[in-house]
Q: What sequence folds into this?
DNA sequence: TTAGGGTTAG
């Protein structure tokens, strides 16, 4: 990555005779000038402009110290314009170091921190000032905001050259910098080398751990801080510790923190109450959260949103909506919390409706990156490509920077909506300058679900060339790619390398993938062997993968073992009964099939109903087996009859074998097969969309064998591409063939 | 001068 900083720091100027402090050179004759005193009382931009004009008339503006006072007033007062401050700065004939520092600091907390680094570079290029111990914390903060690791490291290098690397402010800033760049090792290296750690050093490291998904270590570090007698935990420490408790879900620790605060007389603030509210909510202690909320004398939109999320977690979406409706002010964060609560509770359609409501009902609150990421996630779940495309266009139109979060969501949305080319286009976009592990993993996952195993592995290798370290998700996707493409040797290789080569301990889900790879390839013994040697408890998904493989290969003995184990872990898993009965049926053991069905009925278990959806003009239409609820139902069934007769004319015979699992379907099997949800969706797609656009279907379960054959034939007879996403992967039907090459 | 609260990606 190209650095923004030139190599001018090799030729750093000698110390200037002027001040090396961040106090603007007090010149006795000017510091109490009445015009400058006015600056301290200045509250808005127009007043500042008047004072600026007066300073120009009096010639005061050409004195560096007076000019620095103006810059300070322009950047520190809440209602001023940074652009105006910059215009003024550029007019100062000889800005002093204080002015440079002040402006860099202002950029650090502005929407465009990048200008801060550019200004720092300009200062070095001019060569009149040498950055001091105040410059570095500001410049490093800019780098933190940008998560600019290489620039940050360059800044650290400069600080070392200038002998400022033992300054505790510089070091504390570096901890925050490296944490922002997700490099906790570097952050910790800085932390341990600070000779005299102050509260900020500790707080920075505790926060870094809490915010990087390592709340246990954050709490441990707080313990060490308490043991250090040279430093006292303060309000900020409490906020970070409460946040760690919330993330860990540790109510007991959270309550101890509350009494610690009271015992040590740490003053409560709004931020601290909000952090505590969040802790209660995330730990499921809703009554405590509500009680605290009721006691709070001051509340802001964060308090309300935190309460809203607590309700969403403990009482469900309706309760969250009722908090939302009672909120006095709703900012974009409140909307995002509501949309996200909805999306995460398995209601992606409602989440998109809320996204729509946000745009229709308010003009002041605009969607931000979080809104878009959440909405894209809902589109991905639904396979809502039109809405997803619209959001992509919105991102471009509004000028959102294509950062890793947005790129990951777009890649995932396009992949899951069946447009792999578009996903790849986002991945390769020139606007995406740096790709983090999420972006790479999403693209590998996209290729995997479309059955492009070799391409996925190739990308995995490219990722390593780019020096991006794979994580657990990356491996899930790589193994998934191997599974869908039947790449057994590659699967074995990468699975065996996970811990020794990449330092990623395989989770139960990785074992599940590996069992899937081996099982599908018919290597059932090896799969069982792998499960028996697992160093961690086998999750139900591991046995599920084995059972699925037994169904494919009709292995009764291993199948019985797998279902037994699966049901021990998940007694109400309907899939286990269905798969096992399927295997019995394949062997003609109808008595056992009957027994299983009876057992399911006794337990009140029902096979999850198959549901297929298709998006037309931004509206998602859902179909169940034999569904007649669609307004165009008559046309759909008439199309289905036409399809059936054209299929028969080319010699198609329905495949009834997979129907044997459902007792309800025994009568009129062929009829039931005829109106499977995926066939209804295909028929609707044929009448409501035009070639060459593919018919895109999303199914909640695995596609049935007969529907798979029908889709292949329809793709030839009607010369239409059908893209179908099932529970596990994509099937692209083109000219009578499927991209899965029958390996599914 | 540096550190802190709600909502986001598999």
A:
């Amino acid at each position: 990555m190209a650095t923004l900083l030139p190599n001018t720091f090799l030729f750093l100027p000698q110390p200037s005779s002027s001040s090396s402090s961040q106090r603007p050179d007090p010149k006795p004759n000017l510091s109490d000038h009445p015009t400058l005193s006015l600056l301290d009382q200045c509250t808005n931009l127009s007043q500042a402009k008047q004072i600026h004009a007066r300073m120009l008339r009096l010639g005061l503006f050409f004195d560096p110290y007076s000019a620095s006072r103006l810059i300070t007033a322009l950047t520190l007062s809440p209602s001023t314009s940074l652009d105006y401050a910059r215009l003024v700065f550029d007019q100062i004939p000889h800005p002093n170091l204080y002015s440079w520092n002040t402006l860099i600091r202002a950029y650090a907390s502005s929407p465009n921190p990048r200008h801060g680094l550019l200004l720092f570079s300009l200062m070095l290029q001019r060569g009149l000032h040498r950055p001091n111990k105040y410059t570095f914390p500001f410049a490093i903060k800019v780098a933190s905001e940008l998560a600019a690791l290489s620039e940050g490291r360059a800044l650290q290098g400069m600080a070392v050259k200038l002998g400022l690397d033992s300054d505790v402010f510089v070091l504390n800033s570096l901890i925050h910098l490296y944490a922002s760049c997700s490099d906790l090792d570097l952050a910790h290296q800085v932390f341990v080398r600070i000779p005299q750690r102050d509260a900020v050093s500790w707080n920075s490291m505790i926060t870094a751990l809490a915010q990087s998904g390592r709340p246990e270590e954050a709490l441990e570090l707080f313990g060490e801080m308490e043991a250090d007698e040279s430093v006292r935990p303060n309000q900020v420490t409490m906020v970070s510790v409460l946040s760690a408790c919330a993330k860990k879900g540790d109510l007991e620790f959270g309550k101890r923190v509350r009494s610690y605060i009271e015992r040590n007389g740490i003053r409560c603030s709004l931020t601290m109450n909000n952090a505590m509210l969040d802790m209660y909510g995330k730990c499921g202690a809703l009554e405590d959260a509500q009680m605290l909320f009721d006691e709070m004398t001051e509340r802001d939109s964060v308090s309300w949103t935190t309460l809203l999320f607590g309700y969403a977690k403990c009482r469900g979406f309706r309760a969250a909506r009722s908090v939302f409706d009672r909120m006095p002010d709703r900012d974009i964060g409140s909307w995002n919390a509501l949309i996200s609560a909805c999306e995460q509770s398995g209601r992606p359609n409602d989440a998109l409706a809320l996204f729509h409501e946000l745009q229709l009902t308010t003009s002041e609150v605009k969607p931000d990156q979080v809104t878009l990421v959440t909405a894209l996630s809902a589109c991905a779940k639904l396979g809502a490509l039109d809405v997803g495309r619209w959001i992509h266009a919105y991102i471009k139109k509004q000028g959102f920077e294509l950062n890793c979060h947005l790129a990951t969501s777009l890649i995932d949305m396009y992949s899951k909506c069946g447009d792999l080319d578009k996903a790849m286009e986002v991945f390769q976009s020139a606007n995406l300058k740096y790709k983090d592990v999420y972006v790479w993993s999403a693209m590998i996952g996209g290729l995997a679900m479309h059955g492009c195993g070799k391409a996925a592995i190739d990308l995995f290798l490219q990722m390593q060339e780019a020096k991006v370290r794979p994580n657990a998700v990356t491996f899930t996707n790589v193994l998934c790619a191997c599974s869908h493409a039947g790449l057994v040797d590659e699967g074995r290789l990468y699975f065996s390398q996970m811990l020794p080569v990449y330092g990623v301990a395989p989770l139960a889900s990785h074992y599940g993938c590996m069992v899937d790879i081996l099982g599908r390839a018919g290597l059932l013994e090896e799969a069982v062997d792998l499960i028996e040697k697992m160093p961690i408890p086998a999750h139900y998904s591991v046995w599920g993968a084995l059972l699925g493989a037994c169904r494919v290969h009709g292995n009764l003995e291993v199948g019985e073992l797998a279902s037994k184990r699966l049901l021990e872990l998940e007694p109400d898993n309907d899939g286990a009964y269905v798969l096992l009965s399927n295997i019995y049926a394949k062997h003609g053991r109808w008595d056992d099939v009957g027994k299983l069905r009876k057992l399911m009925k006794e337990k009140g278990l029902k096979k999850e109903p198959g549901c297929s959806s298709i998006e037309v003009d931004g509206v998602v239409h859902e179909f169940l087996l034999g569904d007649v609820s669609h307004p165009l139902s008559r046309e759909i069934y008439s199309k289905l009859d036409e399809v059936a007769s054209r299929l028969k004319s080319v010699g198609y015979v329905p495949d009834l074998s997979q129907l044997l699992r459902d007792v309800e379907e025994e009568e009129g099997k062929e009829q039931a097969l005829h109106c499977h949800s995926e066939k209804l969706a295909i028929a609707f797609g044929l009448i409501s969309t035009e070639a060459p656009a593919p018919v895109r279907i999303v199914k909640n379960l695995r596609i049935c064998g007969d529907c798979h054959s029908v889709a292949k034939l329809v793709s030839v007879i009607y010369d239409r591409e059908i893209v179908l996403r099932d529970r596990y992967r994509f099937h692209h039907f083109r000219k009578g063939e499927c991209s899965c090459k029958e390996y599914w």
Confidence is low (pLDDT under 50) at residues 6-20, 660-667 of chain A. Residues 65 and 279 of chain A are 48 Å apart (CA to CA). The radius of gyration of chain A is 31 Å.
